[in-house]
Amino acid sequence: MSTAGIDTAWDNPLRDPRDRRLPRIAGPSGLVIFGVTGDLSRKKLMPAVYDLANRGLLPPGFSLVGFARRDWEDQDFAQVVHDAVREHARTPFREEVWQQLAEGMRFIPGDFDDDSAFEQLRDAVEELDHSRGTGGNFAFYLSVPPKFFPKVVEQLKKHGLANAPDGSWRRAVIEKPFGHDLSSAQELNAIVHDVFEPDQVFRIDHYLGKETVQNILALRFANQMFEPIWNRSYVDHIQITMAEDIGIGGRAGYYDGIGSARDVIQNHLLQLMALTAMEEPASFDAASLLAEKLKVFKAVKLPEDLGRHTVRAQYAGAWQGGEKVRGYLEEDGIDPSSTTDTYAAVRLNVDNRRWAGVPFYLRTGKRLGRRVTEIAVVFQRAPHSPFDSTATEELGANAIVIRVQPDEGVTVRFGSKVPGTSMEIRDVTMDFAYGESFTESSPEAYERLILDVLLGDANLFPRHQEVEESWRILDPIEEYWARHGRPAQYASGSWGPEEADEMLAQDGRSWRRP
Length: 514
Ligand code: BG6
Fold this sequence. Notes:
single chain, alpha/beta, 10-stranded mixed β-sheet, 6-stranded parallel β-sheet, 18 strands, globular, binds 6-O-phosphono-beta-D-glucopyranose, carbohydrate metabolism, glucose metabolism, Glucose-6-phosphate 1-dehydrogenase
């Protein structure tokens, strides 16, 4: 096995020489991707593997195996990875890194129920152990529609791939959606756990791989100034927004029948909520994090009147920049009578001592005004003002806004005297922006998550209990919607339906316009 031309993390030109921390580098290992021809694989997984190698965070003999129904040789697969890397990788292309990686690429053509393909996969894994020193350590990434999960895990078991030889490991990486509701999620978990032990299973919620999401816990628990006011005594309400300006693109097959709440609230937004609401974990390890997040999920109570406190809607066509943008029901592949939501807003309560009476408003939508994800902790008004009411007419509520993306950072909003001879107080903001404060670049979420899988670090992966709890929260809302008519409408490019504004107005509040 040659290691020539491979950088270690220490002599890697992409590494800041002032950074004295020990890098987290994966040990001998390989990754098998099922569903290698899909979008996720091309746009995220392959580039992430290359970027990790380029940053010196993969072992020299790292190997990548693709499995799909294509008539490809190893070099055809390598070419597909090459093109994906050239198009989507974040770090510069370096021929020597690419060559080293490409030598460890193998492709297995076949169907998921084709036994001989899985035999070939087993042979390839053994061959890589010998030729590249992967040490029997392999992660199997199921980047395939959930209907194929049972078959693939069953085949891995049948062909002896799920069990690690002594001293090595095998792990399964599963992409969402983890089921469609609580009972399908339980079924899926049972199937997966029949083959893999719970700590061998890594469920991907790519939001947890984002720097700004990990920073929620740093902000709260590495500082003294936020936590004392992070509770019902000071907080009025919390708004969690994930807005996208894109429509469903070519994803009709996946999206129709699923909708925005299942696609995004069940996983990303409930995870953001858990990190915002949870108590300090005993330590920063997977078991302690799980324990605290679970307490939040179990404390979530739905409003009794779901009709008043939830909204779902579909984008309607609109003219944008002189062009007609199609409405959801006119998109290719969408049933014109579909009731699938492309926008959802829900009010949740976390019934515990810290949060009793503080509503958490979660909203998400496609084709909204702008792509933005943020968590806004909105505070109560000062209990008393010594200024006369004209002074504070334009003063809003104080807020701490965690800007998850795209303009990553944290904003604190508070009132300040307007310069001049009279007392007038208006909102101002104090901003922390990643780009200004740090020279280090953020790894893409998938880079971080793939590295963690290879290191066996489960902190950033939702466990099956969390997945099931999130469905427990969402199921009654979906059932209510299914029984109650059609979704509302909103114009593409707007900030959602009027019904969502009314949902907050009845509580005496309004949505932020980020
Ligand atoms: C995915 C959803 O999980 O997240 C997509 O399935 C959505 O519908 C995407 O577009 C958004 O991810 P990001 O990282 O671009 O905010």
